[in-house]
Amino acid sequence: MRNFKRKLVLPLAFLLAANTLIGVQxxxxxxxxxxxxxxxxxxxxxxxxxxxxxxxxxxxxxxITARLDDLKxxxxxxxxxxxxxxxxxxKKKGTIGSPYSVRDYYGINPDYGTKEDFKRLVTEAHxxxxxxxxxxxANHTSWDSVLMKHPEFYVHDSQGRITYPHDWSDVxxxxxxxxxxxxxxxxxxxxxxxxxxxxxxxxxxxxxxxTDFWENARLELDRIxxxxxxxxxAHKAELLREAFDFDYSWPLHxxxxxxxxxxxxxxxxxGEWEKELKDWPRGALHMRFSDNHDERRxxxxxxxxxxxxxxxxxxxxxxxxxLYNGMEVGDTTESGAPALFEKLPVFWPIAERRPEFPxxxxxxxxxxxxxxxxxxGSLEWLRTSDESRVLSFLRRSTDEEVLVAVxxxxxxxxxxIEVGKAAGYRDVTPNVGPPQPPDAPPTGSALPKPPVxxxxxxxxxxxxxxxxxxxx
Length: 472
Known about the structure:
By secondary structure, the protein is of the alpha/beta class. Helices cover 34% and strands 16% of the residues. Strands 1-2-3-6-7-8-9-10 form an 8-stranded parallel barrel. The chain has a 5-stranded antiparallel sheet with strand order 11-12-13-17-15. Strands 4-5 form a two-stranded antiparallel sheet. The longest helix has 31 residues, at 2-32. It is globular.
């Protein structure tokens, strides 16, 4: 019996090792391939995520349309609307239910308005040069979805009952082994492009829908409107080969939280960035973010100065930065579960108490828009004298160079950056003013930052400095 067991164990170990090797080889092969090429407006973009229920007191499309000039002036370029479809009632969570529990992919949530209201929103956004994308929840539906008349469209458990993904008991999982479901979903995506002239989709849980479905869908969508964007809510390298323009940089986001909360060294962020570069298709594009509707607000997780330091990093790294509605005023209103299932509007007047937030986001977006190096340049990491707390890097294009240093700790830093030739840099750090004392009235901008004599540099707690020079 002992020898028999040994004969079984050895082949099993061999097979496990072989499978691991095959997986590594497939990853290495994928990393040698080019990523899908994105349009310039995608690479140059700043995404603004809107929860229609929370964005305005009206909680509808008209409330968004009324503030398009504000969004244009802020400098964002791509408006992403969280799901706009009717919400399921059966097994719903909370008072209203999750917008990610979709009852009808072809419908409009009546709480948000009509199809005509939505068309006007898109038309007015386009008139201002803004792109509009909507959330598509292709992995699952509500339990009272119109698709339930086709039970074969769903995944069933061993007892033959329709089942749900993970612990998401308010939704039912779709079965992409069914070719008729695939046809239905692609036709639905085409409908939204044709009918509303949308500029693309943010695709929820994209990594759990088969990659070949997305690739086929993208081929058909491009025939209708080649100039679209698709954002994958996933961190899965193969998605960026043919189907998607960019994805979520989840590991970088997780590392950011660990670092700012004091659980990891700042250098771990660099490590996650390097893993993406090594494992993803060449030229892959990622969305950079410190906040979104799934997370506790960055200002709550990090505190006020640290939230701005985190954004300074996300807006100067390579990739496409995300601003979630309310971040620009320092709003703390939650939207992640269980708040996702309720109506909790952004409290816009809080800007009066946190004037540094609107100043910062306006200035950092303006800086990014004016800098080809920040939008499309290469990235080179620089060594600092304390890499446990401080990150520094260069963004470089043919004509200019931008140097960024961020202190991701609650202690001041005085040290050095290995910058090489340091002449010609001009300080372009947003001048936003310090956080306001609890009962203080709004004040003007901060005093000028102290001069820097590289390689020496000083950064206050959660401080950041950005410098720029011409290479012409």
